[in-house]
Write a structure and sequence with these properties.
five-stranded parallel β-sheet; alpha/beta
């Protein structure tokens, strides 16, 4: 097993995305849904990314990545379409100990993002270790079809019952 599966609590943590296109947007949305404090560095940004900035959901820094941008960052996602930029981000992350995910470059990652089935608070993560993302997506879609929203409600109920039992003298 190459990767150690883990779910990170990034609520309120500073996370940085390098890039402002379609892939970056997908990564930004995932970070936001987990409660991260997201900043984006990109000389240009899609309409959707600009919209998130306009609503105050992210901070958008309209310029190229530069060394030092990772100062104080918990994790970074490098989603630039410039391989040289991605390499520079990786080198800084490696040097500073910041967790990094480089979109479509598993060899430049300290973590990878699996395909997720979200039935909050129940989650399933599907990964092919970066080797076959399309297969992971297809497996996620299959699980989504079989595991409905009611499973999240069921987990909430079980959690409440468990907490009551833990507090009782039984």
């Amino acid at each position: 097993m190459r990767y150690y599966p883990v779910f990170l609590d990034i609520k309120g943590r500073p996370c940085l995305v390098i890039g402002g296109g379609t892939v970056a947007l997908r990564k930004i949305e995932g970070l936001l849904s987990a409660g991260a404090k997201v900043a984006v560095v990109s000389p240009s940004a899609s309409k959707a990314v600009k919209g998130l900035a306009d609503k105050g959901r992210i901070s958008l820094i309209k310029r190229k990545y530069q060394e030092g941008d990772l100062l104080g960052v918990f994790l970074v996602v490098s989603a630039s379409n410039d391989r040289a930029v991605n390499a520079s981000v990786y080198n800084e992350a490696k040097k500073t100990g910041v967790l990094i995910n480089a979109a479509d470059e598993p060899d430049k990652c300290s973590f990878i993002v699996p395909s997720i089935v979200d039935r909050d608070p129940l989650f399933f993560a599907v990964s092919t270790s970066g080797k076959a993302p399309l297969l992971a997506k297809k497996m996620r879609e299959r699980l989504e079809g079989e595991i409905g929203e009611e499973y999240g409600v069921f987990v909430e109920i079980i959690g409440k019952v468990r907490n009551k039992l833990l507090k009782s003298d039984i």
